[in-house]
């Protein structure tokens, strides 16, 4: 996480007016967003996966569009977009098909699923309020500053956990493990967080959550290069998710007068 924060900060400094933004930034809100939205949600998601079956956690994750719709509507009184209900249902159904298409078995709920749901809720809260509270900061700045705050919060937790013994913190021991961690941090993690904020600023959290249900389909497409072919359920999932997203966005296109 710290590596990703550093990459985002460097990109922010090169692309935008870093000094003026840094001085005028609402640091209290940035620290809150980074600590709760980034570090706490990451920890909850990790605990959720650890304490639940992979199948159950994946199924809970497919309900992201529903969670986003409920939070933005009930907490922030944001009006529902045209076609959002049907679009969300299609996206969630597609996500479930994608998970089921992997052939995994669903055994039982183990309790960790609640942590996954909490992590998703905090991520929606974080994504929504980044655009609401930090509207004067460019998207690369939002990503850089909140992830940096999250990295500091995560480091504080690691230090506390090590000293108190409340959690078993393990780090990579081999050179290969450190290289993989470094790559994930400075590459996919930092890039995806910036792109997420950029996308949410234009299409909203709920539509963004609908697109996230395409992740299993992307994994399937990557696995084709490794000699594994998609199942019928994967194909159905892709059609359902894309249909849900397109239907909602087409319903909200401005009408020509």
From TrEMBL:
It is a multi-pass membrane protein. Residues 4-96, 112-247 form the EamA domain. InterPro entries: AA-Vitamin_Transporters (IPR050638), EamA_dom (IPR000620), EmrE-like (IPR037185). Keywords: Cell membrane, Membrane, Transmembrane, Transmembrane helix. The chain crosses the membrane at residues 29-49, 56-76, 82-99, 111-128, 140-166, 178-197, 203-224, 231-250. Coiled coil: none annotated. It is found in: Cell membrane. One of its GO terms (cellular component) is plasma membrane. The keyword Disulfide bond does not apply. Its main location: membrane. This is EamA domain-containing protein. It comes from marine metagenome.
